[in-house]
Amino acid sequence: MKTAIRVFRALSDTNRVRMLYALRHGELCVCQLIELMGLSPSTVSKHLSILRDAGLLDSRKDGRWVYYRL
After folding, report:
1. Which of 1, 35, 42, 67 could crosslink 27 through cysteines, CB 3.0-4.6 Å?
2. Residue 42, CB half-sphere, CA atoms under 13 Å: how many?
3. pTM, whole model, 2 decimals?
4. DSSP secondary structure string, 9-49?
5. How many CB atoms lie within 10 A of CB 7?
6. Contact of 31 with 65, CB cutoff 8 Å
7. How many other C-beta atoms are found inside a 10 Å radius of the C-beta of residue 31?
C-alpha cells in the first residue's frame, strides 16, 4: 500500500510526468533534463529523487554525470 501511495504522489506533479515522458525512448543525463525542462538543477534533482524513490526510475553514474532511465 505504501508503494502505491508513493507512486501516485510521484505522478501527481506535471513536471515529473513530463520527465517520465521524456525518458520513454531511453536514458538521459541530468544536464539534458535540466535543459529540456527549463528548471533549476536543484528542482530537477528533487523531482528525479522522488521518481527514483517511487521505483519509477533507475540511475547510473558515469564519471561526473548521472543518467536516468525508466
Report:
1. 67
2. 0
3. 0.91
4. HHTTSHHHHHHHHHGGGS-EEHHHHHHHHT--HHHHHHHHH
5. 15
6. yes
7. 14
Q: Residue 63 phi/psi, 5° resolution?
A: 70, -125
Which residues make Cβ contacts (< 8 Å) with residue 44, sequence separation at least 6?
19, 30, 33, 34, 37
Beta-sheet strand order (sheet of 58-62): 28-29, 65-69, 58-62
AA letter at 20: L
All three cell numbers of 39: 528548471
Burial (0-12, 13-18, 19+ Cβ within 10 Å), 39 = middle
pLDDT at 2 over 90: no
